[in-house]
Specification:
Layout: H1 5-40, H2 44-63, H3 69-87
Length: about 90
């Protein structure tokens, strides 16, 4: 356990940030699953809608530095490729 006042505060801050980062990562995973489930169906409008929601969540996670920028870009690229192969 920390003894200094600043170390105690740092511990509180890092715990709060850990919870917030976990929530954002969970949101990314939830929207990834939603997107992949939409690919199983035949509704192209639903596929496009879930793809755009997934990209939006990835961009927000990258903006908050929960995901690195290139990681978010890689995830979006892979999702776009899956969408493109099923759309054609």
């Amino acid at each position: 356990m920390p003894n200094l006042k600043s170390a105690k505060k740092r511990m509180r801050v890092s715990e709060r940030q850990r919870k917030e980062n976990y929530a954002v990562r969970s949101r990314v995973r939830r929207f990834r699953r939603k997107f992949l489930a939409s690919l199983e169906g035949e509704d192209k409008a639903l596929m496009q809608q879930s793809f755009s929601e997934y990209c939006s969540v990835l961009d927000k996670a990258a903006k908050r530095n929960v995901l690195k920028k290139n990681t978010a870009i890689r995830y979006k690229s892979r999702a776009a490729n899956k969408l493109r192969t099923l759309a054609s």
